[in-house]
Amino acid sequence: MSEHISSHFHQELEQVRTDVLAMVGLIEQQLGQTLEAFNDADKEILAQVVQNDDKINELEVSIDDACQTILVRRQPTAGDLRLVLTVSRVIVDLERMGDEIKKIALHANGLIAKHHVSCKQLYDTHRLLEMTVPMLRQSLDAFARLDDETILKINELDKSLDMAYHNQSSALLTYMMEDPYGIGMETMLMNKAAECIGDHAKNICEHVVYLVRGIDVCHVPVDEIHKNF
Q1: Cα 31 from Cα 25, distance rounded (Å)
Q2: What is the mean pLDDT of each run of 10 residues along the chain (229 residues)?
Q3: What are phi and psi of 220, to 5 degrees?
Q4: Half-sphere exposure of 57 (CA within 13 A, CB side)
Q5: CB 184 within 8 A of CB 172
Q6: Among 151, 99, 131, which residue's Cα sits nearest to residue 195?
Q7: Helix (DSSP H) and strand (DSSP E) numbers for the chain
C-alpha cells in the first residue's frame, strides 16, 4: 500500500511539472506572436495574444489547485516540499509574464488603431522584447534541468536589459517633452512591461536556486549570489 501511495504521489508531482512546462509553452508562444505582430504592425495577431492570456490564467489556477491538494493530502517533506513550493512561486511569475505580454499587445494595438504607427515606430519596444527571449528560455530551461547556476547568466542579461530600458526611457522623456500628445507614454508603458518580463525570468532562476540548494536568494544582492557559486 505504501509503495502504491508513493508511486501515485510521484505521478502527481510529475503531472504538476508537466503542466508548468505547458504553461511555459504558452508564454513562449505569446511572446513569439507579439514579436511577429510588431514586425508587421499586425492588429489581428495582437488581439489574439490578448485573448490567449485567459489560457495562461486558467493553467495557473489549475496548477495552484493541484499544489494545494498535494500539500494537504501528501504533506511532502524536504525536496518534494521544496518542489511544490517552487512550482507555486514559478507559476505566479509565469502568469505575470503573461500579463505583461498582454499589456504590451493592448498598448500596441491601440497605437496601431489610433495613431497608425508603423513597425519602425515600435522598434525600441521590439528590441527590448527580443532581449527577454533568451532570458525566458534560459530561466525555463533552468527549471526543467534544475540548473541553479543559470542565475549567474540571467543576472548579466538582466543588467543589459535594465540598461537598455533606462537609456530608452531617457530618450522617450525628451521626445515626450517635445511632443506630449504623441505615442511616447504608450511606448514607455510597453517598454516597462518588457523590462518586467526580464525581472520575472530572473525570479524564476532564483526559485530554482531555492529548489536545488534550499537557499532563498530573492533579496540577496547580485554580488553576494556570485560569491556562492
Answers
A1: 10
A2: 57 89 93 92 93 95 94 84 92 97 94 83 91 94 92 95 94 78 84 96 94 84 68
A3: -95, 130
A4: 10
A5: yes
A6: 131
A7: 7, 0
Q: What is the CATH number of the domain that holds 119?
A: 1.20.58.220
SS3 per residue for 6-54:
HHHHHHHHHHHHHHHHHHHHHHHHHHHHHHHHHHHCCHHHHHHHHHHHH
Domain that holds residue 70: 1-228
Residue 170 to residue 168: CA distance in whole angstroms: 5
Question: What is the per-residue pLDDT for 227?
Answer: 67
pLDDT at site 14: 87
What is the number of structural domains in the chain?
A: 1
Burial 53-87 (b: 16+ CB within 10 A, else e): beebeebbeebbebbeebeeebebeeeeebbbbbb
Q: What is the pLDDT of residue 45?
A: 94
Residue 27 in grid coordinates:
508564454
Q: How far apart are CA 4 and CA 7, in angstroms?
A: 5
Identify residue 71 by its one-letter amino acid code: L
Q: Are 37 and 122 in contact (CB under 8 A)?
A: no
Confidence (pTM): 0.90
pLDDT score for 158: 96
> Any idea which residue has 514607455 for its cell?
188
Nearest residue to 184 (alpha-carbon basis) of 199, 197, 171, 165: 171
